[in-house]
Amino acid sequence: MSHIRGIILEGYSHAGKTSVLKALKLLQAQEESSERSIIVLSEHYSQVLNNVHGEFKSLSRDEHLHILKERVSMLRQLNEWSTYLGPDASRASRGIFFILERFHLNHRLAFPSDSLYEIESLENEMLHLGATCVLLTVSSSNVEGRMQSRTPHEWISKSREEIRKSADEFIQTQSELRKQSSLSILPTIEINTDNKDWITYAKRIMNLLN
Predict the structure, then answer these.
(1) How many angstroms separate the CA atoms of 173 and 152, rounded?
(2) Residue 71 CB contacts under 8 Å (≥ 6 apart), including other chains
(3) Cut 0.90: pTM above it
(4) CA distance 80 to 75
């Protein structure tokens, strides 16, 4: 019997991952029968590109796989301990709920031409750990507005051409994430976040797990 379940939030910057993550934490805490053991790791603990002492640095394929394997190993060991303790316990007392941000699709996106054996193995293990992937997206017509809404002061000095280039990159990356999600063994649902209704999105996600 598995005592673990969780969500992997994927999506391009500004798609709403952090907002949905916060809403999921709130809803999970309000449910009386929900797990008391919760693991929430933001993208800084699993993504390819990181801000290291003020400089952006990308992990190599092997470095990123190592990070992902460590995170999966942690979840596996916790679930094994819960299983070892026996099945006679409620979800609240023995269960484990996790949320990860930018995980396997982030890897697939960064290294699309490399061997998929190891990432597919990790996806298969995450499937057995009760993971469901949620890909957050924004409609193409709303991309420019979404990008500028979080940090409007950063866009004031940018030219129309620069803004359009950034929007095109957003749309292209989002399309590639969709493609990669279709190739993954992990079940994935796509949620359009145009309305920024974070609690509604979180409720939809939690209902999928119940």
Answers:
(1) 22
(2) 41, 45, 46, 100, 103
(3) yes
(4) 9
**Overall average pLDDT of the 57-67 stretch:** 96
Among 16, 28, 11, residue whose Cα is nearest residue 206: 28
- List, for residues 137-148, the tens digit of each pLDDT value: 999 999 999 988
Residue 32's pLDDT is: 83
Give the per-residue pLDDT at 205.
Answer: 96
Instruction: Identify the CA nearest to 39 among candidates 88, 101, 91.
Output: 101
Average predicted confidence (pLDDT) for the chain:
92
Long-range CB pairs of 75-83 (<8 Å, 24+ gap) are: 75/4, 75/6, 75/39, 75/126, 75/129, 76/125, 76/129, 78/4, 78/37, 78/39, 79/2, 79/3, 79/4, 79/129, 82/3, 82/4, 83/1, 83/2, 83/3
Token pair for 18: 């952090």
